[in-house]
What we know:
By secondary structure, the chain is an all-alpha fold. It has one domain (23-277). It has helices spanning 23-35, 39-61, 66-90, 108-140, 149-178, 180-185, 191-204, 206-237, 240-277. The longest helix is centred in the C-terminal third of the chain and has 38 residues, at 240-277. The chain is globular, with a radius of gyration of 22 Å.
Amino acid sequence: MAEEQALEPACRITSAQRVSAGQGAAWWREAIELLSVDTEHWIMATLLLMVIGAVVGFVGSLVPYVGDLITGLLIPVFSVGLLYMAYRVIHGHAFVYNNVLIGLRHRTKALILAGAAQVGLQIVAYLALVAVTGLWGASTTTNDFSMSTEDIVVSGASGLVFFVLAMLLSCVYLAAVWFQPALVFFGERGPIHSLRQSLRAVLINWRAFLMYGVVSIGLAILLFAIIWLALTLVRIWLAGVLAMVVYVLVVIAGGAISLFFFALITLTTYMAFRDIFGLETEEARFL
């Protein structure tokens, strides 16, 4: 069995620290600055990662349930690739594409166990949602086919409870897994312990993550509006073959923008992790 590759440079982290609310916007600014240095390289690395993910997903879809489970186990293995690339580039190392697959060479077993922990958390959240909605539905079920005004109100309340609970569980799940792969990979934490640490990090910095979410939504709306406006203008001003050519070019540009945004989100995750957990090396050569 091949010897596990060590991280270069070696790193250390601290326990989660509180940061100011403004850092939620600063993570985006720092990520954009890093992405602007070698934009084409980051986009190509992101495309490579997405192609690998699509292939894994397709192969997994050939074996129902088991394939989905395997895909879930491998998500953390591939998700640390761009994080490690950001870590190396920030510390002055060359951009190397094969670092996208660093999860297959370092902490692989631990990352697979992290995927298992994520799958287990998904199952627990789903069962909790089903149990609560089942109990609520049982207490509000009526045998009368003609619903009264009160029944309609109760039914609407049931739907609202389901929605709120689903959103709450989704937020808790995202908070628990947000930093989990990075904690397992960089901090060599256990898969369950890293879930708790990630959840705590997000909860104590909820103001920063609220700001982060606001900026995220704003940027997503802006990018969608740009693509929609470009497609609309093509339909209005152009026709025939020229319109088709420009339309294809706009779609390609939209795909590139989507890859850019995906890479940007990953880099903001790294910036947040570095900020909250104090990720550093002995060199301490940050951009």
